[in-house]
């Protein structure tokens, strides 16, 4: 089996590769020499391609795509031409222009994108939710963004490029709630602020208000100033409140869903459709882009 890692723009493909290398021959393309060196130091057996076209010419069985958001539509278009299943590391779009470009692509049922938290064991083991029993839901995202305050990966912190904290961290909360309640959701409002990291281009805290067609209301809280990483989903019912907590623990690759995500991707390589319907991914991106526009 041959898997192409097309781009190393964030930390995720480095983590993905640790699982993939147990199953496949790796081909990697990344234009930044320092990022590429970091990868090949850990995976010296990986074949290095000089460009995306060269990487795709190796006829991969699957592609993990991780490029800066403005480049996603063009790169994904090339991957789609190969027919290979593709996992697009989150988020697939961070602006209206990017989302419109994605909408013009012939996305098939073996394209997957989203937050790895959907595959976290603590979340995957939760029982199905009946929206008729739910009054309201809340997702709280605790993930420090201080690295951006130093200028690291400035494109992620730029609202018109990577979407900033509202999009890049907010996707985790929106993803979990849509996974529970479905894609019939719209943004009711959003706000963000810089409470600690004054040099950010975006915000370090944010909030979104959501409403599903069923009438359920939801809140996504984003705390980008945090000493620990954790994600909590709260479901309020008339008679009780249920909570799902996702933490890294002793094995963050497994506990945060990275391993489960790659297992789902490998199932796609084996012929299965994406376990995340594109309808859900599109609804999540619409909420995130709308929140970016409002905030």
Automatic annotation (TrEMBL):
InterPro entries: GFO_IDH_MocA-like_dom, NAD(P)-bd_dom_sf. It comes from the Bacteria. Residues 133-225 form the GFO/IDH/MocA-like oxidoreductase domain. Gene3D superfamilies: Dihydrodipicolinate Reductase, domain 2 (3.30.360.10), NAD(P)-binding Rossmann-like Domain (3.40.50.720). This is Predicted dehydrogenase. It comes from Nonomuraea pusilla. The lineage of its organism: Bacteria, Bacillati, Actinomycetota, Actinomycetes, Streptosporangiales.
